[in-house]
Every structure is written in structure tokens, then in C-alpha cells.
Amino acid sequence: MLEQDTRKSLGSVGLPGCAHTIKMKKLSSESKTRVALSDLIAPDAINDFEGGVIVVLHDERLMRVTNCQLWIIEHKQINETDSDFDDYRTELLGFLVEATIHNSSAAATLASTI
């Protein structure tokens, strides 16, 4: 693999360019994980793998690059979703807007009673 391709792969999993030339032993555990994931997906190994792989992610870029099945962990339950990440993100934003409106109304009501 060419250096340019390697750097592109490392960047696609969120490893900043300044960390691309640091020795593995000096990287943080998070950065080492990103390097390992980059190594897995570079030849699309994770997408072609027919078995199961469980990866807990909080990084949108990693979710998109691995073309993974989305499972939601909330209220002490794990649930598979039929939607893709964009649908889930839209749903979350809707909940945030609703919560913000609800909390703003409650704050205004409280303020008017003081």
C-alpha cells in the first residue's frame, strides 16, 4: 500500500495527520485502536467478512466506513434498528429539538410565576 493510501485510510478512521508518523508504542490506546481498525478496513476486510464483529463506536465516521448494522443501547437494553445511521441521527435531533422546546416552555412558565 502506498503511503498516500495508508494516510487516507488512517484519516478515514479519525486518526489526525500529526499522529500518522508516531510509533505505535507512543500512541494513546484510542489511537492504537484507530490504527488497528484502519488495518482491518484497508482491504475492506470488515465489510467482506461473513462472520460477526462487535465494535462499540461513538464516532460517526467509523460507523459509516464500516457499513455496519446499527444497534442502540439504551435503558439497559440492546435493540437492533431497521434504519440506517442518517435516520437514527434525524430521530435523535428531533428528540433534542422537542426536549429543548419542552424545557424552554417549562422555564418560561416557571419564570412567569416568580
From TrEMBL:
GO MF terms held by the record: ATP binding
InterPro entries: ABCF (IPR050611)
Keyword set, alphabetical order: Repeat
UniProt key word Repeat: yes
Origin: domain of life: Eukaryota
Entry protein name: Uncharacterized protein
